[in-house]
Amino acid sequence: MSSSPTENSFTIESVKALVKDYPDFPKDGILFKDIFPIFQNHRALDCLLNHMADEAITFSKKLNGSKIDAVVGLDARGFLFGPTLALKLEAKFVPIRKRGKLPGILVSASYEKEYGVDIVEIQADSINQGDNVLIVDDLLATGGTCRAAEDLIKKLGANVVLNQFVIELCELNGRDILEAPIHSVIKY
């Protein structure tokens, strides 16, 4: 018999227990946090998504009666959470992708990575001026990708009101470079 939590007993702590560590992946010195076991248990995933949506709703109530207009998911694991959060928040979902992956008129931003510069893009007509935007991704590490996403959204005249992550690696201090408030479900 499995030792996993029973049908209605999932908490964020039991969701956290499903995250697996893989040392030295994808390269030496990295401790990879694998979130995919959460997706293998629909009750755990439901608990996680409901928690994230509840936090976003609670936060949006502080926006002077405004609501979150768009949920932006960061390429690629932000796409796993963004559409469901958008549905729960009655908002649209918008992807931010790595360069060369989106058609149409695009707005770009670059950010520094360990071994160079990377570029992310958003479709120019996907977010309206003045929209309140929630950015979601699986992991906050150094914050570079999310910071570039904040810059893209500002270029479109919208407001980043919340950055939301499943996991935050606190020792990497990624939150220090982000401008909008941050909600991380699980912190290491």
Query: Quick one: how many beta strands?
Result: 9
CATH-scheme architecture = 3-Layer(aba) Sandwich
Portion in strands: 25-35%
Low-confidence stretches: none
Distance between the terminal alpha carbons, to the nearest Å? Answer: 29 Å
Keywords:
188 residues, alpha/beta, Rossmann fold, seven-stranded mixed β-sheet, two-stranded antiparallel sheet, 28% helix, 32% strand, globular
Protein architecture, described:
It is an enzyme of class 2 (transferase). InterPro entries: Ade_phspho_trans, PRTase-like, PRTase_dom, UPRTase/APRTase. Keywords: Cytoplasm, Glycosyltransferase, Purine salvage, Transferase. There is one protein chain. α3 (42-60) packs across α4 (78-89). With 188 residues, the chain is α/β, with parallel strands linked by helices. The chain contains five helices and nine strands; from the N terminus they run αββααβαββββαββ. The protein has one domain (12-187): Rossmann fold (3-Layer(aba) Sandwich). It is 28% helix and 32% strand. A hairpin with a 2-residue loop joins β5 (106-113) and β6. The strands form two sheets. It has a seven-stranded mixed beta sheet with strand order 5-6-4-3-7-8-9, sandwiched between helices. A two-stranded antiparallel sheet has the order 1-2.
Task: Provide a short characterization of the protein structure.
The chain is of the alpha/beta class and 188 residues long. Helix content is 28%, strand content 32%. The protein has a single domain, classed as Rossmann fold.
